[in-house]
Amino acid sequence: MRIALYPGSFDPITSGHVDIIHRGLSIFDRIEVAIAVNIRKTPTFPDDERMAMIREIFADEPRVEVAQFSGLLIDYARKRGITSVLRGLRAISDFEFEFQMASMNRRLTDEVDFVFLMTSEEHYFVSSSLIREVALNGGDVTGLVPEPVLRRLQARFPQPGA
């Protein structure tokens, strides 16, 4: 069985992330979406809520699993017996960062390979941080995030006059 690990903060998961997961399922038999726990950051949504959102989005897709991890990604991948990591690329800056991370991980082990998918054109400008910023300031992110995320963002950051 071909299994990929799709790591990230997913704070929140965006339509671009969902697109990468759906497209990744045409390559892999199963994808484990792994929320990276970073104790140095305070996320907008707690880990359990991010996991719940992803599970709700993929409730009808048994090939998508959701987990969380801390520490080195490759240690987690090895512990789970996963040898492929799926990553999405939006722009040149993403490539530079992802290339650096993949190179370091490759230096640490040759047991894990990285597979990169270009983000679909309609999602290339969307990032979780941009979504949070727009929602925080009362902007409409409809269509940029899945419905379960939109509901939670609207509850967390009510729009003026709503």
Descriptive account of the structure:
There is one protein chain. With 162 residues, this protein is α/β, with parallel strands linked by helices. It has one domain (3-121): Rossmann fold. 40% of the residues lie in helices and 19% in strands. Strands 3-2-1-4-5 form a 5-stranded parallel β-sheet, sandwiched between helices. Strand 4, helix 4 (92-108) and strand 5 (113-118) form a beta-alpha-beta unit. The longest helix is centred in the middle third of the chain and has 17 residues, at 92-108.
Number of DSSP-assigned strands: 5
Number of helices: 6
CATH topology call: Rossmann fold
Integer average pLDDT: 93
Poorly predicted residue ranges: none
In what order do the strands lie side by side in the largest sheet? Answer: 3-2-1-4-5
What characterizes the major β-sheet?
5 strands, parallel
Give the N-to-C terminal Cα separation. 48 Å
Fraction of residues in helix: 40-55%
**In the CATH classification, which architecture applies?**
3-Layer(aba) Sandwich
